[in-house]
Amino acid sequence: MYYVNLGNKNKPLGLVVYAITLDATNKEIQEFMEDAKRKREQIKGVRITLTIGEFDDDKRELWEIPEVRGLCRRIVNLGLISYLDRSTMLPTTPEPELVSATWGAFEVWLCASGKMKEQLNLTFKESLAVLAEFRGELDIANAKCDALLGPLRLKE
Prior knowledge:
Elements: E1 2-7, E2 12-20, H1 26-42, E3 47-52, H2 66-78, H3 96-99, H4 105-112, H5 116-120, H6 124-149
Helix pairs in contact: 2-4, 4-6
């Protein structure tokens, strides 16, 4: 597991991408959560996404790989989605060219729940129901993170 902060120490770009591999332990994922929380608290407006490594040569989409879906379920169950950007595929993403190859909380949850392919074919109205379900899962993740690491304290 590693992260890339595009920018430099004095002027961070504000995009942090964590790479997680299938062999990541729950302890390593928790360490990622702690680091992501610190970055959210220290860098105003930071973008935090993740990528799942080891599958560059696999022709399948990540969400089609059972082991990736299992990893995403662990990420959701541990609460990690709480610190990720909400989404990298929804049209509100301000720097789509920077994050299009990474996932936010919504994409991780879609993969974990087996709904990624379904989501790609939904109408806007149907998507609203999926977003409401995601919001419920995100609320649970937020509560887990608050209990484990304390509430998030954003800089003013």
